[in-house]
Amino acid sequence: MSYLSELLPSRQDYSQAKSVWRHDVMAGVTVGIVALPLALAFGITTGAGARAGLITAIYAGLIAAVFGGSNYQVSGPTGAMTVVLVPIVMKYGVGSLAPLGLLAGAIVVAMGFTHLGGLIKRVPWPVMEGFTLGIALVIAMQQLPSVLSSKSVSGPNTLITAWRTIHAAISAGLHWSSLLLMVLTLVVKFGYPKLSHRLHIKIHIPASFIAIVVATLAVQIFSIKAPQIGNLPRSLFAHVSLTASHIGFSALLVGAIQIALLAAIESLLSARVADQMVHIHESALSYKPNRELVGQGLATMVSSMVGGMPATGAIARTSVNIRSKAQSRISSITHALFLVLVVLVLNPVIAHVPIAALGAVLIGTSYRIASPANLKELLRTTKLDSATLLVTAAMVVVIGLIWAIALSTAGYILATIVIAKRQKRVAAKGSK
Sign of torsion, CA 211 215 216 221? Predict the structure, then answer.
């Protein structure tokens, strides 16, 4: 019984609810405001549409908050997952997301029940940092069709696809209105925090949200012609079919394994970072990795079966949750319920959001993820760590996430062993 109880929700999850719920509700609303443009953008980037992104944020966010193993984790559609999903959707269509998500989610749940959650600690930190940098680069390149208002031209990897997309957009004639909206969005996104600090604005409003509002108002006031999201159905459920896709069994299995591994790695990494941010990574309150896998697996299964996409824990939204003084999973639940309200009430407003602005928000987000200042510090470490970081990032862009992590980890471990043996031989010679 204890084996199952540690993988399931309990009353202990809400032991502080009476004393912290007010702060957590406000934190949840803040995270919801941050999650809104990201959910729309990730849905569009994947090719499943803005509604799929919202459905994912709502269902996956709620289920992972209730069943997951972290009190601070916020889950939903993420840039890392789009890196895997974009080529699959381009090849097999949106219909492939339902069977892929169902199978991938089941694999993640099985990983939790077989106690594989602790394996994340065995991945070397230079590999994880390179993984993060590579994801940031891919997210930025995936936004080119949105900010250029052009079609994505497929290629063997993200880098070539981006190059072909730029070349096709230039050949067809650049869409200057979309480029202008991109610049405006980025200026507001990076300029607003500095402005609010100078003006001593005490109410925290996410910069991404302000940037989207400004860009949308600019389109309406100045009658700028640029592609917009358009009307979204107010339904929180979309009919899906497990047999509508033309994806074959081998492709289904390989894709599901890739999605499952990514969901597990990113979710556990995010939960681990969250515990470090609140300084509980070595206490009884720290996240439970195996329960987190069960929660994330269930979230992906349900989300995919109601018209959403596979989901993971989101480092950016989780960090916003913690910075907003969240103290329990009530905030993550509130974030999902807030998005339900947005879909039901603000649908007509969302329809006018320019797609280029959403792409620009993700470009800005990728810059934050890459964190150039932090990257400079990391590159000043040992040559092995620096090389591993850069090679992992390059492989993420060229050959994909999972292979990049596997090959880089194996190479790092092998190089560490070789260096250790060499140092041992040198030490032995010196002692003679």
Answer: positive
Q: How far apart are CA 392 and CA 132, in angstroms?
A: 9
Q: Is residue 307 part of a domain?
A: yes
Task: State the amino acid at position 118 in one-letter form.
Answer: G
- Please check the confidence at residue 416 and state whether its pLDDT lies above 80: yes
How far apart, in whole angstroms, are the C-alpha atoms of residue 273 and residue 42?
22
Residue by residue, DSSP assigns 162-227 as: HHHHHHHHHHH---HHHHHHHHHHHHHHHHHHHHHHHTT--S---HHHHHHHHHHHHHHHTT----
* Within a domain: 408: no
Phi-psi region of 286 (alpha: psi -120 to 50; beta: other; left: phi over 0): beta
Helix (H, G, I), strand (E, B) or coil at 312: strand
Q: How many domains does the chain have?
A: 1
Query: Could you tell me which residues are beta bridge partners of residue 298?
Result: none
Look at residue 278 and give its three-state secondary structure: coil
Q: What pLDDT score does 432 carry?
A: 61
The pLDDT score that the predictor gives to residue 250 is 93
The answer to whether residues 343 and 237 touch, using CB atoms and an 8 Å cutoff, is no
The answer, yes or no, to whether residue 428 has pLDDT greater than 80, is no
> From CA 71, how far away is CA 19, in angstroms rounded?
15
Residue 384 is assigned to a structural domain of this protein: no
Q: Is residue 15 part of a domain?
A: no
Q: Which domain holds residue 174?
A: 21-370
pTM: 0.80
* Helix residue spans in 77-156 (DSSP H): 79-92, 97-113, 125-142, 144-148
Using CA atoms, how far residue 314 sits from 16, 73, 79, 81, 200, in Å, is: 24, 7, 9, 10, 29
CB 266 within 8 A of CB 401: no
| pLDDT for 333 | 96
Q: How confident is the model at residue 1 (pLDDT cuts 50, 70, 90)?
A: very low
